[in-house]
Amino acid sequence: MRTDSPQTIYRKDYTPPSFLVDSVELGFDLDPARTVVASRIHLRHNPASASRSIELHGEHIELVMVRLNGKVLKPSQYKLTAGMLTIPKAPDEVLLDIETVLAPQDNTSLSGLYVSNHNFFTQCEAEGFRRITFFPDRPDVMAKYTVMLRADKEQYPVLLSNGNLIEEGDLGDGRHYAKWEDPFKKPSYLFALVAARLVCQEERYTLKSGREVLLQVWVEDGNLDKTDYAMQSLKNSIRWDEERFGLELDLDRFMIVAVGDFNMGAMENKGLNIFNTKYVLANSRVATDVDYAGIEAVVGHEYFHNWTGNRVTCRDWFQLSLKEGLTVFRDQEFSADMIGTDTGRAVTRIDQVRTLRQAQFPEDAGPMAHPVRPDSFVEINNFYTVTIYEKGAEVVRMYQTLVSRDGFRKGMDLYFERHDGQAVQCDDFRAAMADANGRDFTQFERWYSQAGTPIVKASTRYDTASRTFELTLAQSCPATPGQAKKLPFHIPVTVGLLAADGRDLPLHVDGVAADGATSVVLELTQASQTFRFTNVAEAPVPSLLRDFSAPVVLEYGYTDAELLHLFRHDSDPVNRWEAGQRLAMERLLKLTGAVAAGETLALDDTFIAAQRALLADDTLDPAFRELALILPSETIIAERMAQVDPQAIHAARQFMRRTIAAALKPEWLAQYHANQTPGEYSPDALSAGKRALKNLALSYLLIAPEAAELDLARLQFDNAGNMTDRAAALAALIHSGSQPHAQAALTSFYSDFENEALVVDKWFAMQAAAPTTDVQAVRQLMTHPAFTLKNPNRARSLIFNFTNGNPSQFHAQDGSGYAFWAEQVIALDALNPQVAARLARSMDRWRRYVPALQGSMRDALEKVAGQASLSNDVMEVVSKALA
Ligand code: PHE
Ligand code: ZN
Hints:
Blueprint: E1 9-10, E2 19-29, E3 35-45, E4 54-57, E5 62-68, E6 71-72, E7 79-80, E8 84-87, E9 93-102, E10 112-116, E11 119-123, E12 142-152, E13 158-161, E14 164-170, E15 175-187, E16 193-196, E17 199-206, E18 212-219, H1 228-245, E19 253-259, E20 266-267, E21 272-276, H2 289-304, E22 313-314, H3 320-339, H4 342-364, E23 376-377, H5 386-419, E24 423-424, H6 426-437, H7 446-449, E25 455-463, E26 468-476, E27 491-498, E28 520-524, E29 528-533, E30 541-544, E31 553-555, H8 560-569, H9 573-596, H10 605-616, H11 622-629, H12 634-639, H13 646-663, H14 665-674, H15 685-701, H16 707-719, H17 723-735, H18 739-753, H19 757-768, H20 775-782, H21 792-805, H22 807-810, H23 816-831, H24 833-840, H25 851-865, H26 872-882
Parallel strand pairs: 2-12, 18-19, 19-21, 22-24, 25-31
Antiparallel strand pairs: 1-23, 2-3, 3-9, 4-8, 5-6, 5-9, 7-8, 10-11, 11-16, 12-15, 13-16, 14-15, 17-18, 20-21, 25-26, 26-29, 27-28, 27-30
Helix pairs in contact: 1-2, 2-3, 3-4, 3-5, 4-5, 5-6, 8-9, 9-11, 9-13, 11-15, 14-15, 15-17, 16-17, 17-18, 18-19, 19-21, 23-24, 23-25, 24-26, 25-26
The structure holds phenylalanine and zinc ion.
């Protein structure tokens, strides 16, 4: 057991920095075993601070020398602790020269300066810069950077940093140098360097203003055939931000660099975005439609950070969602606009709702629940969460729902007018939105301060005589750690009313400007409120929370008939999808109960008929049909149960899938053939939607396959012209339960793609998530020569996909899955605490499981918590789980 207790950091303890930094000059002599960093910092006392001590963060580095205004300091003149170098009683203006030494090749945490495949990369967000040199490593200290890189020319021909290249040349001794200058002041977390053997695709691009910029995508030799889509996505992002928000690229040069070892998706370093290869490399041979969509979204996301994050940054890390929630919202809107159609937009929205329910709602109901703007944390790296990102994006989206797209744009303009070049808070964004639109968003602040997913209960009453329809909305929010009681939220609830013929009724609402529109945004601000619709010609079916207008759980006693009506007719595609999910969920919950009680299982014809009608409805976008036909996941079902029995959920869902497969076999086959995409591969939304529906059909056809279906899958596997179809066929074979077919395909897939790391990840991932893969099989896969815990993508592909994506095996009755989890968390923690802490989160909801499982889950958690040396990262997660 660790004896020191990790320190909690509180938002309320914020104090301004004692010294500000005007500029910094960094010199790097790069060597994998011993890199020397010389830093010259120009500091100035901050009048807003009473302290005269210079506080410089630093960890895992060796301090060689520190000089203040030209004089070398003796150890008695400063204090050096585990994380901080403090120089007391400093004068107003200070020039500091600091020399540090580090060993990038030993840095397995991938934070700070590290080596990946013999190349140098940095990752400084959130607190990695302090692993490079001593510095006030906090986002409210913004400075101008000049960077000199020196390295062996043969091994590291490419030397990159932020901003503009101002000088380069040879040093004579086989080494060369490059000098970079970033004209914009920035916090240290946005610093980056790359020293590597790489090649690039580059292009000159003309901005709307006529200015020309240089765009580059840097990858390892041999991957230049996989950079087109990232480059195209970058150009689309630049254009989109100009058009939608009037925001122009402020640099003459913008670089994306791909690296195979990376903890997260990508990083928005100023002018030098560093990406996980997963979000850069794509061609039809190796990448799926989902990969393509991910690249577009992440390239957009990082590019959009240039304004929302970099030009305006965060005062402190509690404000993380200020940049992340806003930037996720922006990348979501970008992806939706790139498709362009209304259903396309709805399809992206449905995906967002699924992510929220799959990951954010559980987080918000578990031991790591935290507000969008947290009040405290132990390790900031644990707070790059779905709450900060996805719920944060929902909060931003609600402003737009409340003030309209034009109003939102006005708010954004005012935000930049007020705060360009500053490090600010979530409250500043809220104020800009309010002031630009003449709105009072005081109560809206609770979306930032209160954790937990609100529940909105709806009830209705139609009065035939007066032709009025009353909608009562009552809100509540469950307790979360540290927050027992919640105050009412300001919730936009978009509502429509459907007539018996399925059409939208024109709306008139007392006290709300609806003017006969077919959708209206109601603002729920009280604990309970009644809205009165007038002139309602007939008893309507309400379509509530259209477009998922708020991140809440909506409860309403819909009858099957009402849901079927919405599923057939709702003009809001998101709610149409939602009606189908409700129909399925009710049945899944009943079936799960029946499994647990040992009763016989049955699925009604009404439900099957609705599925059949939707599947065969060729007037509907295939992408939409695919989403509407996917059943709620086992995780989402689990969230609806007071006591989770993973085996019963799995059996119930499998029964439903088997029944649908058998009942709709001719329809699945017809759709399989109708949605082929012959010709050259294109990742556009329509083609991707067709492939998605076709491959869903294939997966249903292979649930209980005969020879003909197995042949169909094998044929698709062998002849696929793209990875989407090949991977889908492989997955279908793996899930078919036919071991020989699955094994044959797996073997050939591996030998075809063993040199494509991202495809090998898929190979591991598909096996990890198959319900036929038990913990023993995962252990076996870990002995495969291609497996390593050191590479985060690889670790995630096998281990995380097992613990998070294969619930019926992970939760094996004997607890073997949990013991395995504990071992892997401990092993990973020694290499990479950030990744280990993510894996630790797999046990978050342990108290929700049936008693038979809870005991062994607790044992596993305690085993991890009892380790002698545990990172703060993992310690925070497991101790909160056990608390
Ligand atoms: N800021 C990055 C993003 O959201 C994510 C990230 C965080 C990357 C921390 C690395 C480390 O785009
Ligand atoms: Zn981001």
